[in-house]
Every structure is written in structure tokens, then in C-alpha cells.
């Protein structure tokens, strides 16, 4: 793949949130390493799916990529332009090329704006469409694309059903004519039958508009369905990245295997046949991640050597990239899984961002 | 005789100056001893209200009307007074909720909450109760149970809280366990742990389990019998395998077509149900699903569809059910409907809405 | 097919068409809140009380039978006796021979004026400080948080002082008078409004739709003005209504303490109450009537405020 085909290139991206304590003066007592060194590239016109459980940093990664949360370190290059060092004005102008779809369509729409004003806002911010008539035309076309009726324009978000609200959110992202759309859990707040409508809509829009997607979700089945490449995240880092089909047929990382085996399939025959890899305990706190391989505390294949003290890097194995010291031995069956006893994990680490955090200092700001 | 027999249960919320809401509109199903029964449906189908009505946990408010019967072991739960219902609740029937944090009292240690159940229903006190509580926590897979007893709910993770809640539910070896979306708030690997735990508990103790969920994958792996709910009524009941292999009600067909499967290839199109749950026809005027149905015929509107009983205990509420592969249409559709022959099967793209039923106005793709 | 079922189907068709009428305008949250307010009986009672109060205070002074400062019945007053309720003095006569009814009516205007102006002062100053602090803290980054810190420490100082003490201190500095009462009562409510608006704005700044606007490339000042502030106003409006009630009571308290207007031509309920206490044995009505006036008006504002809180509460939205 040549460089010109790559739309987004992320290199060693880190987002650390300081944990602050203190009554009068805030002292930084540690960092929540929400994203801790992620490399990935998204080819133009393709879909990259990011999957992981809550607290793995996938949403933070999506926001850091769009510079909505300032990254602590690392680079994000969008179509050859480095975003992390871009001046605020230029970044604002770039925003029309990269948009976001949110999980909860209700909370991501301003309840006091009607649909027309929601859709006009971005156009006004970038001076697209010229006058009111020009904007109306663009908005009408966008409504058609997402399958909303024209009378929706004068209505307010609370007058729509969940699925339609998500369509409004998609329309808001589309109206600027972006190249990249970051969709953060685009369907998880919707009912099953509506999920399928939205998934199909996203698929159709990609076909007709040539969009590039970064889809972030906890539902492996949904992610696999719409993605060309899937990245699996665990505690702030990618543990495996593989083409969508290959990830299912040949999962290499123990966590991917466990995740895959945990997803219920609506087919009794499959459910009865397959073997579950049950993980012990909960996700460790991202404020205090385990040393070595982050997964070794729960890994059924963990070995006494290397796993606990050496952090595995992503390495290429037959078309996939995987961060496991013993991936080959596990794949061939040379290593067998063993029982792991659960450790109690305090829920402080739950959620992507703890209650007492403040954004790290923006790059380039004076201190 | 079934352990729990719910017959024509209806729950209506009537508010002043507003139209009455039929949250549950004639739900009937039964649970045999030791059986795992699933209630599946999307939000607003009445699955949670059904369980709350059976347990007598619906908030008492003016305008609430509960009708029908819920016979548990010979007694109609809906006719009981509060006191005897409380006795049955926790001892014979226990319930697990979706959000473990709000179901546990935040200012009381886990241990006290478990021993409270033991004291109330099993008359255990002091050390004996504490010992039993520790054993229960151990049984549901909470590590180091003796120390956990002194801890508060916020000190435990979501999965551990759900385990503690399950420990409380099974403390008195109930004969029926009702689990309302027990894993929806949890991550998928934790969900797998909890489902496995529930399966083990049911297998070991012979407790019957009613599993309420929106996730077809969860019921596929767990339930013996599955009831699919739509608009406050059961639209299809079947054993597990027949339901997934040959769903008859178009709504079941639509649900199955909507779920992306982990084992399907990339790019396979999903077959969503057009419209949204808001496009509901009152059951009195016909089939509630008719406005969204791709197999709709004239007979769907006018009177509520009869329950059709098919072989091996399956039943569906549809006048034009999806055909069973390999059977001739006549065999597949016990109720012969005029004009049904040219209706496309659900696998094909939906035909343009014909007939007198309002077309779905929401969510439908142009 | 039977005729009945066909009719039924036609009915359903019509219903569906009605529900999907294309020309129907959307209903904004404000409109919906207003509809809810209109259906609330408590709100209606509050509104009727306040409506009467406003009418009385606006037109009342032109219709009163006697001038409020005229001492027409001075001669009838003896030790231990004040003329009571009678045809010419509906509410009796006060301690220096003035008509109590006329004074009550004219006093209503003063009470309304003090309440409204004091609340306006509190609302304006408090919202300005709170708005700046909220916008700075929510959207301003590192420097914004510093600005917010400075402003909020100042507000905390105001908040730490007991409100009546603060009002008395201000009144002592400025000297007694109507303006003093307004400023003092207004100053007391400044920290409340500032805290409320700031907290509400910070909460809104963390919401998804602000993030969405940022990702659309909307400028921060525009986000603050068109998204954050409109969505933060509801609690402030409710508080303003409730503050009107407390402002009236506090203004009465200040007048009672002798810090209010000393001009006999302009009666005020609090002052009337203060004057009446010496005659509570022989003419309790002189104290009861102004007290009742204050209570009923405050009740009206409170009822309306509580009803508005319910109407604007997003949690109660369907």
C-alpha cells in the first residue's frame, strides 16, 4: 500500500489524564493512561474497527485522533497534515474534513436546537453554501442521504425516535462533506432492529460517498460486520490488528480469543458447540496497569517467563499484527491454557475517565 | 403442571387527561420446574413490566391496573396481599436486576445485605448466617469472600456486584429466578462469566429461570423455551432450536435478520425491520406488528390475530407466518389466507407496502 | 371482508396520516415547558395570586380612597384605642391616623418594585460573574480555570457571610433608603445566581453536543452563547422566581429593622409591620395585614417557581 492511500496515520499516540488530589493546591498523584502508545493507519475509503471493553481507551483514542482531547504525546497525520502541532485556526478549518458520530443521539444533539439549526451550524462555521438558499439545498440533500423526511427540519430532537435521532447525528456529520468519520458506538444505544438500519445506512453511505470510517464499539459482531480491519484494544494499547475475516478465523492474541468466545451468537447450534474461554476477574485499573504484558494477570496462556516483565510489541504474523510473546506457540497448540484465579479489582478504574481528571496541557501552550 | 403459569396478564397505566398505556397487553407463558425460559423483545415490548407485575413490584400509583393471572405453584400471585407476597418473594421467587449498583443498598456492607435475606427467610442468625453468606459469595465466584462481606457495593466492580446480587437471590434456594437483563450493563467477557454462573446455578439446584433480555445471542445459548414479545404480547413461543432454525412470526424473522453475526462474513447485508417500535397498532385493531411487517396481508387488520398452535409446543400469533423451508406453503401455513400466496418471503427485500395498513413512516429507508 | 373492519382500517389510515402531518411545526422545549406549566394547578394558583398582586400594585395607587400619608383620623386616636374596621376605613386606621387600606394598596407597589429590582440586580450581576466563570472553566482551558478560580473565591467570600448580615452591612455603608434595600437584597442573591449558572454551564460544557459542536469546527464563544448558556438557563430562571419571594421577605426584614425608606408618603409592608408591633395588643390587624400580604405574595412566587422547576426539569420530559 502506498502512502497516498493512507488517510490517517497514528504514531505512538498517548493520552494520559493526571489524577489530581489536594484541597488548596492540586497535586498530581498519578496518571490514568487511557491511551498508551497506539500505532495504526486507516486506508482511504476503508473502515477501521476498534473494539474493546469499557475502560480500554477506545473512545479516548477516537477523540484524541480528532484532537477533541489533546494527546499527551505521539503524532496523528491526516492526509499528510500533522494534526497535533497544527495551529488552532487551521485545525478548526480541518475539522470539516473529519467528523464524529456519537453513541447517545439524545445527549449529542442540543435539545434546544431544531434540526435545521443543527445542520446549519457546521455550514455557517465553515462558510459553506453561501446564503440561506444554498445551505437549504445542501441540507435537503443530506436529509435524503440519511433517509429523513423534509418535515424533520422544523422539529426538535426530542420529537424523534432513537433511530431517527441517530440519523440526525449522521446527517450533521455528513453535511460538511467529510472524508473521515469517527463513529463512537454508533448503534449501541439503539434497539436491535434499528441497529441494523443504521449499520446498513453507514454501509450505503460509504459506498456512495467513499467515506473512511473509524468505528469504535464494544460489540465485536457489529465491528466485524462493518470493518475491513479490526483493532482490538486492551488497557490503552492495541493487542491485535487483523483483517476482519482473519480475526474471526484465526484470532492470535489470547484476549481476542477470549473476547470472541464471549460474544453470544444467535444460533443454538453454534452456542452449544463452541468452547468458551472465560477470563478470570475484571479489567485492571488503567491508573495502575500491570507491568509487562497488560493482559498477563488474566491470560489463560500466561507464561512464567517474559509475560510479567517484558511488554510485547505489535509484530506481524501472517497478515495480522499481534502483541503477544507466545502467539505462534498458542496458535499451533504448543501452549495449553491453564486456570487463572481472579483478583479483585477496585472499580476506581472503571470508565474511560475518572471523576477527578483535568486535560493535560495542550501542546504549544505557554506555562 | 407448570411451576409458573402466566395467563392473559395485562398491565395498564392510565394517567389523568392522557390515553391509557397498555404496557403489557395479554401476555401468556408458562415455566416448568427447572426450565430456562426466555422473554425476548426490544425496548417497550413489556418484558420488564411483565416480570415486575408477577413479582408485585410495580410502583403503586393511581391508574395502574393489573389483570389476568400469574399462578405460581397453585397460588395466584396477583391476588395475594402484600405480606404473603413478600414471603414468597425472596424465598420461592427471587429476582436479579439489570443495574446491580442501584439494586444494592450503597450504605450497607454486602455481607449484611446477604445475611439479611438469610435472617428474613431462613431464620439464620449471627455466625451461622455470616458463614453461610461467605459460602454463598464463594459459590458465585467472588474471591476472598470473608473479606468481601465487610465491603460496600461501590468497592466492588460491576461484575462482582452482579455476582453479589445473584448470591442474595439464590440465598434461599428459590424455585424460580427471574433475571431482568442481568448482563446488559456488563462488558462482554464479564457477561460470559455471569451467564456461565447462572447456567451452573440452574443446573446444580434445579431452579427454574426466566431470562429477560433483548439479546438473541444470550437466549440462544441458555434458554429451553423462548417467548418473543412485541407490543406487550407474546407473538411467538418455541423451543430453542426450532425458533432459531425456522422462525415463523415475521417479527422473529426480522429480529434474526437484524443482528450482525460474529460468524458471518464482511459485507453481508443485514435485513432490518423497517419502521420503529412507535409504529404500533393497538392489538384490538389488528396485529400490532402489521405497520412494520413485510408479510402483511389484508387479514392482519381488523381483528387481533389468533394464537396458532403448531406441533411440539410452538405457537405464534400471525395469520401469514414465514414458511418453513422444505414444506409446501399449505403445510407451512395452517391458517390459509386469501391473497397470501403472492406475498414475498421475508428473506427477500421488502415489497412496497400494499394494503390498507399505514406504511411505516419512521426509520424506513427511501 | 366486513364493512366494520374496512371502516376500522380507514380510521387507522386517517390516524396515521394525522400523526405524520408534514406541515406541523416542531415544538421546542420552551414551548413544551410552557404547556406543562399551564396544566399544573399549583402554577395556576401562583399565577393568579401574582396577577392580582401586579394589577393591585400597578393600578391600585390611582384608585385608593385616601392619600397614604394623610392623617385624616388623627383626632380619633386615644391611648389604648385605634379606630377599627368600618365603612370609611376598610382595614381600620393606623397609629397616627392614616387609612390602613390605602397604605396596603400603595405598599404593594413598593414591595413589588423592591422584589423585582433586587432580583434583577442579583440576576444581572450574578449571571455575569457566573457566566464568565462558567464559560472560562468549561471551555477556556488552563487560563480559563485560573479566571474561574479567582471569580469563584470572591463569590465564596460573599456566600460565607450570613445573608442578612451582608445586607445590613451594605445598608449601613450606603445609608438607609429604598435604593439601599434593593442593592442590599440584590447583593445577597448574587452568589446564588453566580454559582448556579456556573455549575450548570460547566455541566453543559461536558455534554456530548458541545463536543459535537467543537468537532464541527464551531468557535468557542459561539458554542458558549448558542449552546451552553441557553441550556443552562432553566435552573437560573426557576431560582429567579424563587428569589423574588425571598427578596420580598428580606426587603421587608430590612425595612422592619429601620434600614428602609423613611419617607412617610411611600408606605412599605415591612415598615408597616415594624410600626405596628408597638400596637399589637390594641390593633393586631395592623401587623397581621402587611404580614399576610408578604406571605401570600411570597407564596405566589414560590408556587410558580416550584411549578417552573417541574416544567423545566429535563428528567420529567417524556
In short:
The complex is a heterotrimer of chains A (367), B (366) and C (318). Chain A is of the alpha/beta class and 367 residues long.
CATH homologous superfamily label of the largest domain in chain A: P-loop containing nucleotide triphosphate hydrolases
| Neighbour order of strands in the largest sheet of chain B | 6-7-8-3-9-10-12-11
Largest sheet geometry of chain A: 8 strands, mixed
CA distance, first residue to last residue of chain B: 51 Å
Protein architecture, described:
The complex is a heterotrimer of chains A (367), B (366) and C (318). Mean pLDDT of chain A is 86; it is low at 349-367. Chain A contains eleven helices and twelve strands. Chain A has helices at residues 58-65, 88-94, 115-126, 132-146, 162-174, 192-209, 220-226, 244-249, 254-262, 268-273, 327-332, and strands at 6-21, 27-43, 47-51, 73-78, 81-82, 98-101, 180-184, 212-217, 229-234, 237-243, 315-317, 320-322. In chain A, helix 5 (162-174) packs parallel to helix 6. Helix content of chain A is 29%, strand content 22%. Chain A has two domains: 3-110 and 169-246, Rossmann fold (3-Layer(aba) Sandwich), CATH 3.40.50; 252-345, no CATH class. With 367 residues, chain A is an alpha/beta fold. By secondary structure, chain B is of the alpha/beta class. Among the domains of chain B are: 99-173, no CATH class; 252-260 and 270-366, no CATH class. The longest helix of chain B is centred in the middle third of the chain and has 18 residues, at 188-205. Chain C has 318 residues and is mainly alpha-helical. Chain C is 73% helix and 0% strand. In chain C, helix 3 (41-63) crosses helix 11 (285-312) and helix 6 (163-174) packs across helix 7. At the A-B interface, helix 5, helix 6, helix 7, helix 8 and helix 9 of A face helix 7, helix 8, helix 9, helix 10 and helix 11 of B.
Amino acid at each position: 500500500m502506498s502512502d497516498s492511500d493512507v488517510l490517517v496515520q497514528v504514531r505512538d499516540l498517548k493520552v494520559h489524564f493526571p489524577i489530581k488530589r489536594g484541597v488548596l493546591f492540586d497535586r498530581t498523584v498519578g496518571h490514568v493512561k487511557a491511551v498508551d502508545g497506539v500505532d495504526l493507519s486507516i486506508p482511504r475509503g476503508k473502515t477501521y474497527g476498534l473494539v474493546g471493553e469499557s475502560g480500554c481507551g477506545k473512545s479516548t483514542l477516537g477523540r484524541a485522533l480528532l484532537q477533541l482531547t489533546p494527546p499527551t504525546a505521539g503524532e496523528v497525520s491526516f492526509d499528510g497534515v500533522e494534526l497535533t502541532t497544527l495551529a488552532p485556526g487551521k485545525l478548526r478549518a480541518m475539522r470539516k474534513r473529519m467528523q464524529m458520530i456519537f453513541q447517545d443521539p439524545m445527549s449529542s444533539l442540543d435539545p434546544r436546537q431544531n434540526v435545521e439549526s443543527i445542520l446549519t451550524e457546521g455550514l455557517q462555521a465553515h462558510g459553506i453554501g453561501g446564503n440561506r438558499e444554498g445551505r437549504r439545498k445542501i441540507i435537503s440533500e443530506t436529509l435524503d442521504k440519511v433517509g429523513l423526511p423534509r418535515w424533520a427540519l422544523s422539529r426538535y430532537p426530542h420529537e424523534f425516535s432513537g433511530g431517527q435521532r441517530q440519523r440526525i447525528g449522521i446527517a450533521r456529520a455528513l453535511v460538511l462533506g467529510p472524508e473521515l468519520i469517527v463513529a463512537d458506538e454508533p448503534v449501541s444505544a439503539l434497539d436491535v432492529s434499528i441497529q441494523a438500519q443504521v449499520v446498513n445506512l453507514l454501509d450505503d453511505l460509504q459506498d456512495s460517498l467513499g467515506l473512511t470510517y473509524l468505528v469504535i464499539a464494544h460489540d465485536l459482531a457489529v465491528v466485524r460486520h462493518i470493518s475491513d480491519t479490526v483493532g482490538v484494544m486492551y488497557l490503552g494499547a492495541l493487542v491485535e490488528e487483523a483483517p476482519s475475516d482473519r480475526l474471526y478465523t484465526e484470532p492470535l492474541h489470547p484476549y481476542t480469543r477470549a473476547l470472541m468466545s464471549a460474544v453470544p451468537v444467535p444460533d443454538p447450534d453454534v452456542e452449544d458447540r463452541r468452547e468458551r474461554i472465560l477470563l478470570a476477574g475484571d479489567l485492571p485499573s488503567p491508573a495502575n496497569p500491570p507491568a509487562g504484558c497488560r493482559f498477563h494477570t488474566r491470560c489463560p496462556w500466561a507464561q512464567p517467563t517474559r509475560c510479567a516483565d517484558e511488554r510485547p510489541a505489535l509484530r506481524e504474523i501472517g497478515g495480522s499484527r499481534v502483541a503477544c510473546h507466545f502467539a505462534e506457540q498458542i496458535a499451533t497448540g504448543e501452549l495449553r491454557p491453564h486456570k487463572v484465579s481472579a483478583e479483585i479489582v477496585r472499580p476506581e478504574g472503571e470508565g474511560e475517565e475518572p471523576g477527578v481528571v483535568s486535560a493535560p496541557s495542550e501542546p504549544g501552550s505557554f506555562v | 403442571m407448570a411451576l409458573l403459569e402466566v395467563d392473559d396478564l395485562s398491565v395498564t397505566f392510565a394517567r389523568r387527561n392522557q390515553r391509557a398505556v397498555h404496557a403489557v397487553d395479554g401476555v401468556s407463558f408458562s415455566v416448568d420446574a427447572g426450565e430456562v425460559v426466555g422473554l425476548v423483545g426490544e425496548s417497550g415490548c413489556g418484558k420488564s413490566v411483565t416480570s415486575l407485575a408477577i413479582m408485585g413490584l410495580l410502583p403503586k400509583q393511581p391508574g395502574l391496573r393489573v389483570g389476568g393471572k400469574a399462578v405460581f405453584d397453585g397460588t395466584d400471585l396477583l391476588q395475594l396481599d402484600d405480606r404473603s407476597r413478600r414471603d414468597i418473594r425472596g424465598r420461592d421467587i427471587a429476582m436479579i436486576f439489570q443495574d446491580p449498583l442501584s439494586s444494592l443498598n450503597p450504605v450497607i456492607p454486602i455481607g449484611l445485605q446477604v445475611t439479611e435475606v438469610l435472617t428474613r427467610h431462613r431464620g439464620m442468625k449471627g455466625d451461622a448466617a455470616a458463614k453461610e453468606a461467605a459460602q454463598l459469595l464463594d459459590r458465585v465466584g467472588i474471591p476472598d469472600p470473608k473479606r468481601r462481606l465487610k465491603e460496600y457495593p461501590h468497592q466492588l466492580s460491576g461484575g462482582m456486584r452482579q455476582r453479589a446480587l445473584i448470591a442474595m437471590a439464590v440465598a434461599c434456594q428459590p424455585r424460580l429466578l427471574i433475571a431482568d437483563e442481568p448482563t446488559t450493563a456488563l462488558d462482554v467477557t464479564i457477561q460470559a462469566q455471569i451467564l456461565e454462573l447462572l447456567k451452573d446455578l440452574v443446573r446444580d439446584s434445579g431452579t427454574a429461570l426466566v431470562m429477560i433480555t433483548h439479546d438473541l445471542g444470550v437466549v440462544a445459548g441458555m434458554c429451553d423455551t423462548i417467548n418473543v414479545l412485541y407490543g406487550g404480547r407474546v407473538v411467538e413461543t418455541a423451543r430453542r432450536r426450532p425458533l432459531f432454525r425456522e422462525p415463523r412470526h415475521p417479527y422473529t424473522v426480522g429480529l434474526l435478520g437484524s443482528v450482525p453475526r460474529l460468524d458471518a462474513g464482511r459485507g453481508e447485508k443485514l435485513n432490518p425491520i423497517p419502521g420503529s417500535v412507535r409504529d404500533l397498532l393497538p392489538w384490538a385493531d389488528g396485529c400490532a406488528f402489521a405497520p412494520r411487517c413485510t408479510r402483511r396481508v389484508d387479514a392482519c387488520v381488523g381483528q387481533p390475530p389468533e394464537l396458532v398452535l403448531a406441533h411440539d409446543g410452538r405457537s405464534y400469533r400471525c395469520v401469514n407466518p414465514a414458511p418453513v423451508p422444505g414444506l409446501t406453503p399449505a403445510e407451512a401455513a395452517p391458517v390459509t389466507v386469501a391473497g397470501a400466496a403472492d406475498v414475498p418471503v421475508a428473506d427477500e427485500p421488502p415489497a412496497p407496502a400494499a394494503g390498507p395498513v399505514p406504511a411505516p413512516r419512521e426509520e424506513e429507508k427511501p | 371482508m366486513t364493512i366494520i373492519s374496512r371502516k376500522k382500517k380507514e380510521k387507522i389510515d386517517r390516524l396515521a396520516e394525522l400523526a405524520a402531518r408534514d406541515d406541523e411545526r416542531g415544538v421546542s422545549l420552551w414551548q413544551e415547558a410552557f404547556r406543562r406549566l399551564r396544566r399544573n394547578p399549583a402554577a395556576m394558583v401562583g399565577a393568579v395570586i401574582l396577577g392580582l398582586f401586579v394589577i393591585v400594585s400597578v393600578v391600585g395607587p390611582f384608585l385608593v380612597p385616601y392619600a397614604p400619608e394623610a392623617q385624616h383620623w388623627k383626632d380619633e386616636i386615644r391611648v389604648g384605642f385605634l379606630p377599627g374596621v368600618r365603612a370609611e376605613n376598610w382595614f381600620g386606621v393606623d397609629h397616627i391616623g392614616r387609612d390602613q387600606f390605602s397604605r396596603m394598596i400603595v405598599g404593594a407597589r413598593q414591595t413589588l418594585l423592591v422584589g423585582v429590582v433586587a432580583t434583577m440586580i442579583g440576576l444581572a450581576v450574578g449571571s455575569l460573574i457566573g457566566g464568565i466563570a462558567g464559560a472560562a472553566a468549561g471551555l477556556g482551558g488552563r487560563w480559563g480555570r485560573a479566571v474561574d478560580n479567582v471569580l469563584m473565591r470572591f463569590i465564596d467570600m460573599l456566600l460565607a457571610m450570613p445573608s442578612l448580615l451582608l445586607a445590613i452591612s451594605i445598608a449601613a455603608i450606603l445609608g438607609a433608603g429604598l435604593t439601599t434595600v434593593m442593592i442590599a437584597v440584590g447583593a445577597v442573591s448574587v452568589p446564588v445566581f453566580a454559582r448556579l449558572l456556573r455549575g450548570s454551564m460547566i455541566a453543559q460544557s461536558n455534554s456530548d453536543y458541545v463536543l459535537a459542536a467543537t468537532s464541527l469546527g464551531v468557535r468557542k464563544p459561539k458554542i458558549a452563547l448558542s449552546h451552553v448558556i441557553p441550556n443552562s438557563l432553566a435552573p437560573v430562571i426557576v431560582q429567579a422566581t424563587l428569589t423574588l419571594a425571598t427578596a420580598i421577605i428580606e426587603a421587608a426584614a430590612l425595612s422592619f429593622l429601620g434600614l428602609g425608606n423613611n419617607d412617610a408618603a411611600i408606605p412599605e409592608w415591612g415598615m408597616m409591620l415594624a410600626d405596628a408591633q408597638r400596637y399589637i395588643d390594641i390593633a393586631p390587624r395592623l401587623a397581621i395585614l402587611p404580614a399576610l400580604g408578604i406571605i401570600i405574595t411570597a407564596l405566589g412566587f414560590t408556587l410558580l417557581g416550584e411549578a417552573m422547576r417541574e416544567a423545566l426539569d429535563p428528567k420529567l420530559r417524556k
